């Protein structure tokens, strides 16, 4: 589209009044075919994805940190990189870290930022409930989380002895996405209860200790027993061990599923509470 | 010109005409607000407000900042719920998403997602509606076709305003809520937006708009609602409101009871001050200053210091809404002498 083309059209603005076709007001709500939930969710996902992907630094940030961690902490250590099991475990830990980080940042920071944008109340006035926006947000987060693990897996595959079968890889990715659920909920809980300025440090304060205590950076076998006890109660450790179980067959500790479910329920409650509180404040 | 008689029918030529739905016969008011009260903590934003807007009306809402205009719009748009009373949008609760198919709202100009392109935002909003206006037609209508591929973050304030109003119309709504649609625009951009709003209205659309600019309301509205401190102060046709407020102010000193002269609709009498020759100062408001002066001269009373000035609409509205609560009728500002004058 060129400027010249458009010039030709500007006189339309001066047209006194269009033909009086009855184009306004096609119906009161129900009789018109409303776009379905699926179509609307897809719409919201598409445009949220576009919005996110056009801020390249946000996307790259997700990709770079876990990839760098692979290069600094895993690839140079022959003892780890050269051992198929250890290498796979390291890839699993950093992949999970990528997912946790993406979930917490996308939802925690993203939601908090969205709430401050005046576009958000406008979207609420469109003929759609909160579901499409929510579904779009969750899926968008999942997509960028998956982007985050791509470099980690590639580096593991190219530069270490990490090895899995295709089936194990699929099982691993499925588990990673499942483990992402509680972190997504935690992120939303943060995002709906705090301003963007407050959400950023809070997310960082939550993410790094959880990642460390959960054994995503250092294997928990190196932990003293008291730390190992704490570690097993964290959602990161439960998630890590479950992902490793899917990837290598190394069994997770017995309470892992229970711990993960417990945190999921707790974070879900937090997210719902924060969402309602936010509704009550801004849209009474 | 005729080749592109757009209106909002541009896209519909090829689509089947949609009949008004079962739930929305023409006699159901498009917007109905019944005895609505809305509080924010201690503050009463709206106090027992009622307002009914029928299909095809163009209603302008005037009032100072914080009067409750935006709160009223947010209730009609389903973004808030009233503490008491009922709000209906074409007979349905605007808090139900499906009811809002009949509604068009403008985003605040600063609130457009900066990384999305103009045509993408139009597409995104339009796809929420069953019968949207074609994106190219809509952009042409608002004279912003050349911006289709620009990210909204790079638009000027005027361009964003146009896009914002365009977005309110993309779903062919029965009613649009326009909150300060042309604030901060230059004359040309404002005229272009007015033209678009008029076209929508000419096609049968209902418009509820707020503005600080009396000129804007005078230009567009057929009916005017004045809101102040959460209460509807006036609700009448534009002409009636204008007749009510388009007054001239005559200032004159005299010892005679000039406020009883015919044609005086409102007056203020301040007692004589030293040095004013024992004459009281009168501020008389009248729709016809010439007649009043003629009357004054022929009545033969002594007067001095005659001054005549047209009270602007702006001032008139200020006076209209500046009535301190509970003091109605005591001072000249709203105390009318209509009874004694006629």
Automatic annotation (TrEMBL), chain A:
Q: Which residues span the membrane?
A: 55-74, 86-109, 138-159, 165-186, 198-218, 255-275
Record's bilayer topology term: Multi-pass membrane protein
Does the UniProt entry include the keyword Membrane?
yes
Localization (cell): Membrane
**ABC-2 type transporter transmembrane domain location, by residue?**
45-245
Q: What is its main location?
A: membrane
Q: Where is the composition biased (Low complexity)?
A: 10-23
Region Disordered: start and end of each range?
1-26
Cell division listed as a keyword: no
Could you tell me the keywords of this UniProt record? Antibiotic resistance, Membrane, Transmembrane, Transmembrane helix
Annotated InterPro entries: ABC2_TM, ABC_2_transport, Nod_factor_ABC_transporter
What is this protein called in UniProt? ABC transporter
Species: Paraoerskovia sediminicola
Lineage, highest ranks first:
Bacteria, Bacillati, Actinomycetota, Actinomycetes, Micrococcales
UniProtKB/TrEMBL annotation, chain B:
Q: Which domain of life is it from?
A: Bacteria
Compositional bias (Low complexity): 325-336
Q: Which CDD domains match?
A: ABC_DR_subfamily_A (cd03230)
Q: How does it sit in the membrane?
A: Peripheral membrane protein
Q: Where is the signal peptide?
A: none
Gene Ontology molecular function: ATP binding
Where does this polypeptide localize?
A: Cell membrane
UniProt cross-references to Pfam families, sorted A to Z: ABC_tran
Transferase recorded as keyword: no
- Protein keywords: Antibiotic resistance, ATP-binding, Nucleotide-binding, Transport
Please list where the region (Disordered) is annotated.
Answer: 1-26, 322-342
The UniProt record lists the keyword Transport: yes
Looking at the record, the residues that make up the ABC transporter domain are 31-254
Protein name in UniProt: ABC transporter ATP-binding protein
